[in-house]
Design brief:
Blueprint: E1 7-9, H1 12-27, E2 35-40, H2 44-54, E3 59-65, E4 77-80, H3 84-87, E5 94-101, H4 105-113, E6 118-124, E7 134-138, E8 144-146
Parallel strand pairs: 1-8, 2-3, 2-5, 5-6, 6-7
Antiparallel strand pairs: 3-4
Helix pairs in contact: 1-2
Length: 165
């Protein structure tokens, strides 16, 4: 699989730094989160970092499948719901974490479940940005982010040698 023209590969080191930066911002928002609800699978890694940095022990998942072929979003399916106790009072005091908000479709589903929760993502694209309260880095809508768990070690052509179509 070749990289798209606007590829944003993220290393483990960079992702860890960005997730810690997100935790730093979130520490200033609320010092007493009841729980983290991470959107799987992408939200698992930043949720682990954030839970450590902010001392949050209660971690829950909501499983939403959207990228069925890794190329474009398909029909959204909720595969696992959130524990009912965390849904009380609209999710007030709960932190929702994801790696990326792209189109905002997945975020909208989870926001509808927990309208009073605080939504945080490491990366945001313009269409999804209005759905999150806190994020670290914005990339253009036509940029594909390659997360470290999706990558292997391969040679990359220098930008000057890339086909310019």
């Amino acid at each position: 699989m070749s990289l798209p023209e606007k590829a944003f590969p993220v290393s483990w080191d960079q992702f860890h730094r960005d997730a810690r930066a997100l935790a730093w911002r979130l520490a200033g928002v609320n010092g007493d989160w009841k729980a983290i609800v991470c959107i799987t699978r992408g939200g698992l890694v930043p949720a682990a970092v954030i839970s450590r940095e902010l001392g949050i022990r209660m971690i829950e998942t909501v499983c939403v499948a959207s990228y069925h072929d890794y190329l474009e979003q398909g029909e959204l399916k909720v595969l696992k719901d959130i524990t009912p106790a965390l849904l009380e009072d609209g999710g007030a005091g709960v932190l929702i974490v994801d790696d990326l908000t792209d189109t905002g479709r997945t975020a909208a589903i989870v926001r509808a479940m927990m309208p009073k929760a605080h939504f945080a993502a490491v990366y945001a694209k313009p269409k999804g940005r209005p759905m999150v309260d806190t994020y670290i880095t914005e990339v253009s809508q036509d940029t594909w982010i390659y997360f470290p768990w999706d990558m292997g070690f391969t040679y990359q052509k220098p930008i000057s040698e890339a086909d310019r179509g």
